[in-house]
């Protein structure tokens, strides 16, 4: 796998828990730097409720979307993650 085959995007809902959008952005940047993570991260204005409205989600979890924009897994947990990624990336 590699960046050309897989993109990770984190949606942070921290801005909805009493802090400002600016503070949430600073916190996310600090966390990514601390853990040496370089994937795309978006702090969603309106927090969790903003994400629910924008993406029609019903809870926290991992959603896998293929290159065609079709959801291949919703609320994915660890046991099925490898299977879905293998299917999506065409690895055998």
Fold blueprint:
Blueprint: E1 9-12, H1 21-34, E2 40-43, H2 47-55, E3 62-65, E4 71-76, H3 78-89
Parallel strand pairs: 1-2
Antiparallel strand pairs: 3-4
Molecular structure report:
The chain has helices at 21-34, 47-55, 78-89, and strands at residues 9-12, 40-43, 62-65, 71-76. With 92 residues, the protein is of the alpha+beta class. The chain folds into two domains: 1-60, no CATH class; 61-92, no CATH class. β1 (9-12), α1 (21-34) and β2 (40-43) form a beta-alpha-beta unit. The radius of gyration is 15 Å and the shape is globular. The relative contact order is 0.16.
Rg from C-alpha positions? Answer: 15 Å
Largest beta sheet: strand ordering: 1-2
Overall pLDDT metric = 79
**Structural domain count:** 2
Main sheet specs: 2 strands, parallel
Q: Give the assembly state of these chains.
A: single chain
> Distance N terminus to C terminus?
12 Å
**Shape verdict:** globular
| Residue runs with pLDDT of under 50 for 5 or more positions | none
Which percent range fits the helix content? Answer: 25-40%
Indicate the proportion of strand residues: 15-25%
- Secondary-structure element order, as H and E? EHEHEEH
What is the helix tally? Answer: 3
Query: Which structural class best describes the helix and strand composition?
Result: alpha+beta
E-strand count: 4
């Amino acid at each position: 796998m590699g960046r050309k085959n897989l993109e990770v995007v984190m949606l942070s809902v921290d801005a909805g828990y009493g802090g400002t959008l600016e503070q949430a952005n600073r916190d996310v940047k600090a966390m990514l730097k601390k853990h040496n993570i370089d994937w795309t991260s978006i702090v969603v204005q309106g927090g969790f409720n903003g994400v629910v409205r924008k993406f029609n989600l019903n809870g926290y979890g991992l959603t896998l979307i293929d290159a065609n924009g079709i959801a291949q897994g919703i609320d994915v947990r660890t046991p099925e993650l490898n299977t879905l990624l293998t299917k999506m990336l065409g690895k055998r």
